[in-house]
Design a protein that fits this description.
By secondary structure, the protein is an alpha/beta fold. The protein folds into two domains: 3-61, Arc Repressor Mutant, subunit A (Orthogonal Bundle), CATH 1.10.10.10; 67-247, Rossmann fold (3-Layer(aba) Sandwich), CATH 3.40.50. The protein contains ten helices and 15 strands. A seven-stranded parallel sheet has the order 6-5-4-9-12-14-15, sandwiched between helices. A three-stranded antiparallel sheet has the order 1-3-2. It has a three-stranded antiparallel sheet with strand order 10-11-13. Helix 6 packs parallel to helix 7. The protein starts with a helix and ends with a strand.
Length: 248
């Protein structure tokens, strides 16, 4: 993120909403420069452009950019990805979601052959295409950051049937199960459930107990949960009740 964009975001956080004209005057940049910065910030899920200006998103609505997410809890994600690769078999049709954990899992798939791998994450697809001999499909749609996530993406996803799909989430709670920050991502996962024979949830332990606005799926729709440490007893009981396999 450019220093100018950081300043723009700081101003919006203080004022919550400003017009492009007000921002241009306050920051001494042209309106066209402000528009470009706002578009980039919106693509990263930090602001929403509205009525000739911009509205800063609340913390629980902000989607962390991929460039930041891929470095958070890295050791835990590598551990989860290594365990998750145990569910992969040669000649499977596989889906990897846009999460940073699924991106790490992709790096473990070079050892497999004749896989048909689909993903919404452009970085994941490029890596797999360059470093494996498997067939790679990119599920298209409107790009957000490095991945596609839109109604078009969901429609395209319906053309596939996956032996196993790997997805992550933003939070998991006893009350509401699997939840997400972004509506389009949650909607995409609803479609993914319809297309998948088995659904494996990749979730690091610090997401346990967190609740976000959009529900992804029912726990009973998940085949297995892969995490980095033994879940608390209250979660283990819930997984057992719903016949969900837990690996850690």
């Amino acid at each position: 993120m450019k220093d100018r964009q950081k300043l723009l975001l700081t101003i919006l956080k203080d004022k919550n909403f400003l017009t492009i004209s007000d921002l241009a005057k306050h920051m001494h940049y042209s309106a066209s420069t402000i528009r470009r910065d706002l578009k980039e910030l919106e693509n990263n899920g930090l602001v929403q452009r509205i009525h000739g200006g911009a509205l800063v998103l609340k913390p629980n609505e902000i989607e962390t950019p991929t460039t930041i997410k891929q470095h958070l809890n890295l050791n835990e994600k590598k551990y989860i990805a290594a365990l998750a690769s145990g569910y992969v078999e040669n000649r499977q049709n596989i889906f990897l979601d846009s999460s940073s954990t699924a991106n790490i899992l992709a790096k473990n798939l070079a050892a497999f052959s004749d896989l048909n791998i689909s993903t919404t994450n452009l970085e994941t697809a490029i890596y797999l295409n360059l470093h494996t001999q498997n067939k790679i499909n990119v599920i298209g749609g409107r790009m957000i950051d490095t991945y596609s996530s839109s109604m078009i993406t969901a429609r395209n996803l319906r053309d596939y049937v996956f032996d196993i799909s790997f997805m992550s989430c933003r939070g998991f709670s006893l009350e509401y199960g699997v939840t997400d920050k972004v509506e389009s991502e949650s909607s995409l996962k609803h479609t993914l459930i319809e297309c998948s024979k088995k659904l494996v949830l990749l979730i690091d332990s610090n997401k346990m107990g967190l609740i976000f606005p959009y529900r992804d799926c029912k726990l009973s729709q998940i085949y297995a949960v892969v995490t980095d440490k033994k879940p608390a007893k209250k979660y283990s009981k819930l997984f057992e009740k719903n016949n969900v396999e837990v690996v850690y």
